Amino acid sequence: MEKVTAGKEQLGDFAPQFAAFNDDILFGKVWAREKELAARDRSIVTVTALIAGANFEQLPFHLQKAKDNGVTKEEMVRL
Fold first, then answer.
1. What are the Carboxymuconolactone decarboxylase-like domain coordinates in residue numbering (predicted)?
2. Separation of CA 12 from chain center
3. How many Å apart are CA 41 and CA 58, to the nearest integer?
4. In angstroms, rounded to a whole number, what is the distance separating the alpha carbons of residues 55 and 49?
5. Do both 44 and 28 map to the same domain?
6. Domain of 46?
7. Using an 8 Å Cβ cutoff, are 66 and 38 in contact?
8. Count of domains in the chain?
9. Residue pLDDT, tens place only, 27-63
């Protein structure tokens, strides 16, 4: 799994603790637990939750992440 560094890149100077939490804990430890839930399935759940909650600002990142995790365009359309 590719390491996510968006928090450090975008917020590292302004909010370093938040950036570290985002990158190291959320994406580094939680998203990395593929024994519990495969990255592909986790992406489907995340995209679905973002759409259901009208959290569209995060959608482009997570749609790309879903694609990177093997979710097909046809599957995404059905979400």
1. 16-77
2. 18
3. 18
4. 8
5. no
6. 37-79
7. no
8. 2
9. 777 667 767 788 899 899 999 999 999 999 989 989 9
* Domain identity same for 10 and 26: yes
At 20 the pLDDT is 77
Closest-CA residue to 27 (of 45, 7, 13, 41): 7
Question: Does residue 46 sit in the same domain as residue 73?
Answer: yes
- For residue 31, give the amino acid letter: W
| 63 plus 76 within the same structural domain | yes
- Cα gap 5→9, rounded to integer Å: 6
Please give the model's pTM, rounded to 2 decimal places: 0.65
Question: How many angstroms from the chain centroid is the CA of residue 5?
Answer: 11
Is residue 19 domain-shared with residue 55, that is, in the same domain? no
Q: Which long-range contacts (CB under 8 A, 24 or more apart) does 43-47 make?
A: 43/69, 43/71, 44/71, 44/75, 44/79, 47/71, 47/76, 47/79
